[in-house]
Amino acid sequence: MKCYDLEEALKRAEGNIKHEGMYLTEGERDLIRSKAKGEIDQEEFIKRVLEYHTGNNDESKKSNITYGEIEEEIITPRS
Asked: Which top-rank group of organisms is this from (predicted)?
């Protein structure tokens, strides 16, 4: 995906989730960019998102999204 297309898609996605009262932090944007550019695969993306939102780092405290226990089958599509 071209950088311009990626940034435009990210802006549109952010606009959509704002209607639900959610906002992305810069750390979340960076994860999405890495996945879209192919720098990380789906498995690594999911791992980092979960670490980001369940960790005790400064960035995770900025997010307004919380996750309870997540079962593997919920985050992994069935074949």
From this structure: Bacteria
Check pLDDT > 60 for residue 43.
yes
Instruction: Name the residue ranges covered by the structural domains of the chain.
Output: 3-63
- Crossing angle (nearest 10°) for helices 42-54 and 26-36: 170
DSSP assigned state of 21: T
CB atoms within 10 A of CB 52: 19
Report how far residue 27's alpha carbon sits from residue 33's, in angstroms, rounded to the nearest whole number. 10
pLDDT beyond 80 at 27: yes
Q: How many CB atoms lie within 10 A of CB 28?
A: 21
- Residues 7 and 1: their CA atoms lie apart, in Å, by 10
pTM of the model: 0.62
